[in-house]
Amino acid sequence: MKPHNQSPGQNRPRDRHLFDLLELRGLTSGHRAALWAVIAIAGSMFVIETAAGHFCGSHALRADALDFLSDALLYGLSLSVLGKGIRARAGGAALKAGIMCLASAWVLGSALYHFEAPALPHAGIMGLFGALGIISNLACITILAPHTGERRVFRLYEDEKTGPDILGSSAVVVTSAAVWMLQSPWPDLLIAVLASAQLLWLAARTLRPALVAYQGSDRES
Question: Is the full-model pTM beyond 0.85?
């Protein structure tokens, strides 16, 4: 399927999956309201989990907050470039990837820094906010469910995550139990490194092609 507003001559291999992300045609008012609700939930949970992770010393909780940030950016930028051309969608994709690169690198760097002097996080607070993360993701999934037939793909690559899921928050809950049973900070640090490194890799993977397409769209316009 060709990207929106793309002429036949612009159908190049580098654009094969590019800008299915942010392609939202025929968006109903109900679907738009659902997306705004998800943006509000995801944005709030990013702030809440980041603050809770700092308060209780959990890097895994801060890494899970990044997942909510990604969702809020994804849907927010999708709505902001609704109906616009490839250049705007490329810019939105590059902006999201750039923000996620910086945020993921910060959480990853913080976790690695604490490898030398790890501190035991508060397992109870970790578990509590991890459970809140699961509930929030389930709420987002429930809100979006009635609009499944209306949705377009929100992704840059075929295997990119395209919506809320509970895996990250579930991992926080399991990690909090491991921290409590072992009385060790290492489960928290290891999960944080794995989760933030994966998000950093995914963001870096999408940043370059988005920038290339953004620059290319300027030359081809």
Answer: no
